[in-house]
Design a protein that fits this description.
The protein is about 30% helix and about 25% strand. It is an alpha/beta fold. The radius of gyration is 18 Å and the shape is globular.
Length: about 300
């Protein structure tokens, strides 16, 4: 079995690492370069750097921060936030990142994912999906802006009874989701609901050439009550590409659940690492003790 990856996430706002609850109430967690260097020393497998307000504020990502971060780490670095063009991706790769994470721009123009994968390779292209649970039978509260940006074939069609299913015909036979909810994709840092079904969207970005999905549950984000295993499992089973579980981690045991029951290839966390509750080493020890293969400093996958 391939080793599971442990990935700290740096949510960056105004040049500082921050963390909130349900994408709100941001709290400062330090300088991104210093935080990245600490995780490098602790043996993190990868690092994700998200400029969480770049899309909402319609500005470019902070390239100098990305470059300074890349200079102090050797582990793979994924960067997202405010990426709108192929030139943006090229500049980020030049600045030192290994992969780019696209969210809002992918929803607004799905062909952008295909073009990026063709130009730079699928291994460089990550799509970040931010879903929120909506009970079936309730209409979406999609804003006009969000609705206009969603490909019509992938929009949720609220169903009056569970048997009808909200997918387009293209996806309806592959629906492993529970019968009581669907997951509405949000963009612009979680501010804009789109009416886009998360499972349909995950399958579509795989078809477009994305090499990985970072799945951030808006309901679980920052709560430290555990990942949303239900949607993590549903998306992991729906696609062949790796899925990174994100949102809600409060302990290494939560990572165990996401990587086993949830079927994720990697687990992403922020708060438990940023504020010193657990180190990367302690987390990997816990995972290994539960039979989850992890990678150590000698790059070998081990179990205990």
């Amino acid at each position: 079995m391939l080793a599971k990856r442990i990935i700290p996430c740096l949510d960056v706002h105004a040049g500082r690492v921050v963390k909130g609850v349900n994408f709100l109430n941001l709290r400062d967690a330090g300088d991104p370069v210093e935080v990245a260097a600490r995780y490098e020393q602790q043996g993190a497998d990868e690092l994700v750097f998200l400029d969480i307000t770049a899309s909402h504020e319609e500005r470019e990502i902070i390239l100098d921060v990305v470059q300074r971060t890349s200079e102090v780490i050797f582990m793979p670095l994924t960067v997202g936030g405010g990426i709108r063009t192929l030139e943006d991706i090229r500049e980020l790769l030049k600045a030192g990142c290994d992969k780019v994470s696209i969210n809002s721009a992918a929803v607004k123009d799905p062909e952008f994912v295909r073009q990026a994968a063709l130009r730079f390779g699928s291994q460089c292209i990550v799509v970040n999906i931010d879903p929120k649970r909506v009970p079936i039978g309730e209409g979406t509260e999609t804003s006009e802006a969000g609705r206009d940006e969603v490909p019509e074939a992938l929009r949720v069609v609220p169903r009056p009874v569970p048997s009808e299913g909200p997918f387009s015909e293209k996806f309806s036979t592959l629906d492993p989701r529970p019968s009581t909810v669907y997951w509405d994709v949000h963009i612009n840092g979680g501010r804009v609901p789109t009416g886009l079904d998360a499972l349909a969207w995950a399958r579509h970005v795989e078809e477009l050439g994305a090499g990985e999905i970072v799945l951030t549950s808006m309901d679980a984000d920052g709560t430290k009550d555990g990942y949303d295993i239900e949607i993590t499992k549903a998306v992991s089973e729906a696609v062949e590409i790796p899925v990174v579980a994100s949102g809600g981690c409060g302990s290494p045991e939560h990572m165990v659940a996401a990587l086993t029951a949830g079927g994720a290839s990697a687990a992403l966390a922020a708060s438990i690492f940023h504020y010193g509750e657990y180190s990367i080493g302690e987390t990997k020890e816990c995972l290994a003790a539960h039979g989850v293969p992890v990678r150590r400093e000698d790059t070998s996958a081990v179990r205990q």
